[in-house]
């Protein structure tokens, strides 16, 4: 990176470190932080959508639908999240390939599960065998996003389901008294009022989502955990210009600090949002704000 | 091979008793259920030991955080912030590599790099921090009348804490603490995926479940088995904690007893 980096053996400590931290692999390491932030940016709205849909299904008046919704919420919350991550990556991959296989190769007559192998025709492979590297990476990343969204959607569904029930009953009765249909009541009265009740749970969920991002590593994405392990391991002079001992501890300390800082920033931001939303609301928080402003 | 034989061979495989080699091909349902169940021994071990030992540290931390003295409050606040603000997964990795580099200098840290001790310590500190935050919240919401009554009786210091504050704190914190316990048990599944090696393939339930999923390339059998075990474990935890809750609230009239509202919606 810097001009003095041509011969690392001769440098003093500070310069050596500056050169070391700007090698090509370290730049990939820094890029993987963007990957984590990207995952958060994509997953949060998608999971919110899953959650909203889940909550709507769970409070449906058609019994089987409501059972499906409630089962979705209950099962995902009853089992360790990591088990879901490991499960869905393979299951989703196989499901996609199975569907494509059925659509693309209708005249294939061998069974798909042959002993311990999962065999689909060449055209149904995902991504295609001859696809470039970035397609593989994007595919892996999208599988991760879908998995995260399914798991966190269930948590969000639980929060939104509770928030919908927390909206004062009188509000809904008023809407009914005005002759609104069930659908109108839902969209015009229930949904706008629900958010302030859902926000504490959702902000909690955001914190949890941040802390779940290192599990990307288990989904086979080259994320910050992967790079920290790679870069921190002992390097001998034979393979690199910057030999060092086992520094993985320091790399993970760095990740720890990154997450602490991120959590702290999120906390401050969410407090601000909550302050905005409670302004003028008929809740305990809004009341406290009103009194504070008067005093 | 009959299923009974399989249970004899693999029932205690996760702690090194029984058949040395894991099954390699033609996996039967019985083998999967037995081995994954055998792995649950580790999940229960980590969960129970960390929970019981963490309970005491959590109480101390909660009291320290509520203390008016800055010298006590600040360290407790930082401890809780560090362990609650960072992912458990990263804590496991950091702990493992920390013990690894300590081991290279002091041989006495040898045991710390194996999961049974090293991961247990990380889990212990982690659950202590989460529980301390719960207990701290409960300490703040102890009814004023309770402490005033203790003052009126002339109770101070340790007896006041032991006989008035602590039981009330537990009573208030118990539903949230039950959630924490459930999630601690779920968190134990992370251990063998976060640096700590499974020596001689003695791993926890998820370790065996992913072993089968890798070997058969069929996730639809081992993971539902694992899920079933964890749901059973969760029900046991809820049962035990519910019994303790009933005992903590036994002086209240039946109607006024706080219903346990379980909302396990936190993961780390």
From TrEMBL, chain A:
The protein's name in its UniProt record: ABC transporter permease subunit
Membrane topology of the entry: Multi-pass membrane protein
GO CC term, one of those recorded: plasma membrane
PANTHER family: ARGININE ABC TRANSPORTER PERMEASE PROTEIN ARTQ, CATIONIC AMINO ACID TRANSPORTER, MEMBRANE COMPONENT
Record-linked CDD domains: TM_PBP2
Superkingdom of this protein's organism: Bacteria
Record-stated family: Belongs to the binding-protein-dependent transport system permease family.
Organism: Sulfitobacter sabulilitoris
Major localization class: membrane
PROSITE patterns attached to this UniProt entry: ABC_TM1
Keyword presence, Amino-acid biosynthesis: no
InterPro entries reported for this sequence: ABC_transp_permease_HisMQ, MetI-like, MetI-like_sf
GO terms for biological process, alphabetical: transmembrane transport
Swiss-Prot/TrEMBL keywords: Membrane, Transmembrane, Transmembrane helix, Transport
Transmembrane feature ranges: 36-59, 71-92, 139-164, 185-209, 249-270
Residues in ABC transmembrane type-1 domain copies: 33-270
Compartments (UniProt record): Cell membrane
TrEMBL record, chain B:
Short name of any one Pfam family annotated for the protein: BPD_transp_1
Keyword presence, Ion transport: no
Localisation per UniProt entry: Cell inner membrane; Cell membrane
Superkingdom of source: Bacteria
Protein name (Swiss-Prot/TrEMBL): Amino acid ABC transporter permease
UniProt key word Cell membrane: yes
Transmembrane segments: 44-64, 76-99, 111-132, 181-200, 220-244
Family in the record: Belongs to the binding-protein-dependent transport system permease family. HisMQ subfamily.
Positions in coiled-coil regions: none
Gene3D superfamilies: MetI-like (1.10.3720.10)
Biological processes annotated in GO: amino acid transport
Keywords in alphabetical order: Amino-acid transport, Cell membrane, Membrane, Transmembrane, Transmembrane helix, Transport
